[in-house]
Design goal:
60s Ribosomal Protein L30, Chain: A; alpha+beta; Phosphoribosyl-aminoimidazole Synthetase, Chain A, domain 2; 6-stranded mixed sheet; single chain
C-alpha cells in the first residue's frame, strides 16, 4: 500500500468537533480559536534519519530542516507561525552534544520567524533519530488558502526553481512565509500548497481537491542549476526536466489565480521579490490529471513525485 492510499484509508472516519473548519487533506488544519479576527492553523511534520537526512548531515541543519518543513506548510495556507512543540526520538547511544546542536539550528530558525518553542517530548527509537514538529499559526478569519479552490482557466504559478534539492537546498531552503502572506493579502489566490514531494506529486493534490485538470508548458518549468548540472555530469538517472518535477523537497509554492490576474501578479512580484523567481507554468483545465505541452504537441504526463512506502 502506497502513502496516499494509506492516508485515504485512515482518514475516512476521523472524529471531529465544532472547532474544525478544515480537517485532514490540506497543508494545515484550520480551527476556531475564539478570536473574531483570525483562525488557528495546526500542522505536524517529521524528519527521519536515513530518509530526510543522513548521519553525516550537520546537526544544526537537521534541526533547521525539521522546523522549516512545518513552516513551509503554514506559508502554503497564507498564515503566520506562532508556537511549536518538538518530539525527538533517539537511539540509546545518542550524543548530548549532537542533540544540542540540532536544537541550536532549530532555535535559530524559530527566532528568525518569531516562533516560540514551548516544549515537547523525548523518547527512544532504535538505531536512528526522528524529530516530529507540531506547529500552530494564525490566518485572518476566512482567508486560509486551501488546495480546493482552483478554477478552470486559472493560471498556475510556481516560485523559485525546481529539482536537484539533494545538492543542498533541502537543508537550506527558506520557507516562503513572506511571499505567501503577501500573495494572500494582495491577490485572490484560488489554491496553494508547498512542494515537498515534487511538482508532479503535489500539483495533483490541488487538481483532485478542486475537481480539475492542468495543462503545463514544458518550456516554462523553472529548472534549477543543480538539476541541470546533475544531468550534464550523468549523476542523475533522469533528465533535468523530469528531475525538476519529481525530485521533491523543493519547498517552493505552487498556486493558482484567475487568468486576468496573471500579469498583475508577475509585475507586482518582480518589484516586491526581485531575487525570487516566479514562473507561470500552465493553466487549469476541465477534466483530470496533467497534460504536458511542448513543441511537438500535448500528451498526458504520468510521472510522479516522491512517495513513501512505494
Amino acid at each position: 500500500m502506497k502513502e496516499f492510499e494509506l492516508i485515504a484509508r485512515l482518514t475516512r472516519s476521523l472524529p471531529t468537533n465544532d472547532s474544525v473548519i478544515v480537517g485532514s487533506g490540506d497543508d494545515c488544519a484550520v480551527l476556531e480559536c475564539g478570536d473574531p479576527q483570525r483562525q488557528l492553523l495546526f500542522k505536524t511534520d517529521a524528519v527521519v534519519e536515513g530518509i530526510h537526512f543522513t548521519n553525516e548531515t550537520p546537526p544544526e541543519k537537521i534541526g533547521r530542516k525539521a522546523l522549516a518543513r512545518a513552516l513551509s506548510d503554514i506559508a502554503a495556507m497564507g498564515g503566520t507561525p506562532n508556537a511549536a512543540l518538538v518530539t525527538i526520538a533517539l537511539p540509546a547511544n545518542f550524543s548530548p552534544e549532537f542533540i544540542e546542536k540540532i536544537y541550536s539550528g532549530m532555535n535559530a530558525l524559530a527566532a528568525q520567524y518569531s516562533v516560540a518553542i514551548v516544549g515537547g517530548e523525548t523518547t527512544t527509537n532504535p538505531e536512528r533519530v526522528l524529530i516530529s514538529i507540531s506547529l500552530t499559526g494564525f490566518v485572518p478569519r476566512g482567508k486560509a488558502v486551501l488546495r480546493s479552490g482552483a478554477k478552470v482557466g486559472d493560471a498556475i504559478f510556481v516560485t523559485g526553481e525546481l529539482g536537484g534539492s539533494l545538492a543542498g537546498k533541502h537543508l537550506d531552503f527558506s520557507p516562503r512565509l513572506a511571499e505567501a502572506s503577501w500573495l494572500a493579502e494582495n491577490f485572490s489566490i484560488h489554491a496553494m500548497m508547498d512542494l515537498s514531494d515534487g511538482l508532479a506529486g503535489d500539483l495533483p493534490h490541488i487538481l483532485r481537491a478542486s475537481g480539475v485538470g492542468a495543462e503545463m508548458l514544458k518550456s516554462a518549468v523553472p529548472i534549477s542549476r543543480a538539476a541541470k548540472d546533475n544531468a550534464k555530469r550523468g549523476d542523475a538517472a533522469k533528465p533535468a526536466f523530469v528531475a525538476a518535477l519529481t525530485d521533491g523537497e523543493d519547498f517552493e509554492l505552487v498556486f493558482t489565480v484567475a487568468s486576468k490576474s496573471a500579469v498583475p501578479v508577475l509585475d507586482a512580484w518582480k518589484k516586491k521579490f526581485p531575487d525570487v523567481k516566479l514562473s507561470c507554468i500552465g493553466k487549469i483545465i476541465a477534466g483530470e490529471g496533467i497534460r504536458m505541452r511542448d513543441k511537438t504537441g500535448i500528451r498526458p504526463f504520468t510521472a510522479h513525485g516522491y512517495v513513501h512506502f512505494s
